[in-house]
Amino acid sequence: MKPGDKLFDNINGAIRKCKVGVAVFSPRYCESYFCLHELALMMESRKKVIPIFCDVKPSQLRAVDDGKCAMEDIRRFNWALEEAKYTLGLTFDSLKGNWSDVVTSASDNVIKTLIEMKGEKQMQRRKTSPILHV
């Protein structure tokens, strides 16, 4: 990106093109319109999302109506958060954990997921391609 580029145009396009999303939930995650918008777009696009719960429990995630967002956005964000809450993810306690361990674990999970998705796509191709008999 370069100065003058529209953030949402680039972010939305990248999310629509990605295969796997990683959402790092922090205690203040739900205060960010951008974070919530990105999560909602990943969930609406049916992307595989790997959540990382950093110093926060899934049950604590909730978009709050502070009067700055439209009610439709709040509903959309809470729906996406509910989806994330019930997705198996990674947890991290910054007081006890090692950042490099959680980053390594997350990247390993992304790579494994991409490999699985590639295998599933190849299986789909085999099922739908016509068999030629000679």
From TrEMBL:
Ranges for domain TIR: 1-88
GO-annotated biological processes: signal transduction
InterPro entries in the cross-refs: TIR_dom, Toll_tir_struct_dom_sf
Range of residues in the leader sequence: none
PROSITE patterns named among the record's database cross-references: TIR (PS50104)
Pfam families membership: TIR
Coiled coil: none
Name used for this protein in its record: TIR domain-containing protein
Organism classification: Eukaryota, Viridiplantae, Streptophyta, Embryophyta, Tracheophyta
